[in-house]
Design brief:
The longest helix is centred in the N-terminal third of the chain and has 4 residues. The chain has a single domain, classed as Immunoglobulin-like (Sandwich), CATH 2.60.40. It is elongated, with a radius of gyration of 18 Å. The chain contains 1 helix and 9 strands; from the N terminus they run H-E-E-E-E-E-E-E-E-E. By secondary structure, it is an all-beta fold. The relative contact order is 0.28. Strand 3 and strand 4 form a beta hairpin.
Amino acid sequence: MTLFLSGCVVYPINKTLQPEAEILVTDAEGKPVQDAWVSLISSSYPYGLEQMRMGDKTNDSGEASFAEIKEWRTESLMIHGASVFFWNWCVVKADFETHTTMWSSSDDFQAQYDVTLTLGESTPCPEELNKIGPRL
């Protein structure tokens, strides 16, 4: 009873850590880019820190896909008692500029995403995309 009165209500939730998602990578001429390294980066509030990163290479059609990952967790109705996930893309291919997104909410994320890479210098994906927190 004391826990209830203090506002510490704990409940189970099946949280989406990573949504089902697909990406199509093309060049400036609209041709598929094969063997681009695509990372789907999962971060969460309250601190905006990266939680996990999954990677895959694009196929000969320029596509990569990611399966949904869910996990049962316990959360509470206290401040910082619940995690809110959001996701970003990072695409790297030699001789092309690296493409990253910086979305700050799950509402912004596009689970079916098309990206056009432009010729230029490629750099690795940032080690922690949201190290100082996402833009709000």
